[in-house]
Amino acid sequence: MDNFERKIKVLTVFGTRPEAIKMAPLVLEIGKYPDIFENLVCVTAQHRQMLDQVLDLFKIKPDYDLNIMKENQDLWSLTSNVLMEMKKVYEQSKPDVVLVHGDTTTSMAAALSAFYARIPVGHVEAGLRTFDKNYPFPEEINRVYVDAVCDYYFAPTDTSVKNLIDAGFKKENIYKTGNTVIDALFHTVENNSADLSYLGLNPDLKTILVTAHRRENFGEPIINICKAIKQLVNTNKDIQVVYPVHLNPNIQKPVYEMLGGKERIILTKPMDYEPFCALMKKSHIILSDSGGVQEEAPSLGKPVLVLRSTTERPEAVKCGTVKLVGTNPMDIISSTQLLLDNERKYKKMSEAVNPYGDGKACQRIVEVLKGIKA
Length: 374
Ligand code: UD1
Ligand code: UDP
Description:
CATH topology of the largest domain: Rossmann fold
Strand content: 15-25%
Number of domains: 2
Bound molecules: uridine-diphosphate-N-acetylglucosamine, uridine-5'-diphosphate
Strand order of the largest sheet: 3-2-1-4-5-6-7
Helix content: 40-55%
Number of helices: 15
Radius of gyration: 20 Å
CATH superfamily of the largest domain: Glycogen Phosphorylase B
């Protein structure tokens, strides 16, 4: 780069645990080119503790921390706070490009705020769709809005590229990169020295890992999920369940009330990413409504029964490692029981496939960013 050229100022914005996990390797990759990029990070802290866990792991020190999280926050206050606070950050930092991730309210409001400030936006994990505005809620609409205002689309798979083209976005702005979650996973699996002894797992039992946190599963669905877990543990003396419980009070309350203190059910606080990956690897079956877990588990060869009726991640369903089971207790029980009892079915679902990437998504995104005008 000659002396008269300015560095490209990239501002990466995120706020929740999954965005942090998926953006952290990108921030590290951008940081490898200090002569080309000014590498700024803004966290909204839509999540606090669950975000800080990831910042610590990847040793990222944000340039801006909006510290927005409130106990049991609602979508209105969250959206307006991010929108307004990001205005100030953009005025101060004047980036050449803003990067947001996926479908959270942080991403949607930060992208809209950048659009109002006439700053180009790159959407990492662009193009995912269920085509149902209520599932997942409000994420499906968040991702549609981000795609509507952004300029660079970093789509993880052929399906997400096609969704964007079908929606009318210009092909020349769409880049198929793979999902950065695989970059994060490889980074973590490679150097993983996590100690799981604090969980007190019985090595003679099969471990079923559970995570659930989606807004559309609040109320009856989460109660049904707990009922199914209880029943499975009662009828199968050779299994134990580990459930790192999301800090959302709408999840904490019913889960601790229904499953707390039960034999062979280990409830724990949200786990750091490293031990969580180690636990996924150790698990026999995963029950989850998480987006990220659906992408990671196939790479580790672990069957995932998805506690949702739709998914924006059809690739692993097609490959056979992920199955949608919804939240009806009988459906959860019968699908889990089938995998516990039928070795052939289990083997078929536990083949390691990797439809989401090769661990080089961040490199591809950075190559595109190098072409942006400072
Ligand atoms: C958010 C995202 C969702 C993503 C999920 C990942 C939106 C609308 N939702 O949902 O897309 O899948 O994160 O986990 O953007 N809390 C804490 N500490 C934390 C995190 C959360 O106490 O570190 C509690 C707070 O009371 C907070 C509540 O959880 O108000 C809900 O957090 P919020 O980010 O609004 O919703 P999530 O369900 O976490
Ligand atoms: N995860 C974690 N600790 C946990 C549970 C999940 O580090 O206790 C990781 C998981 O590996 C994945 C991400 O968090 O990378 C998924 O986050 P979450 O399920 O909260 O959000 P979603 O992906 O559904 O948006």
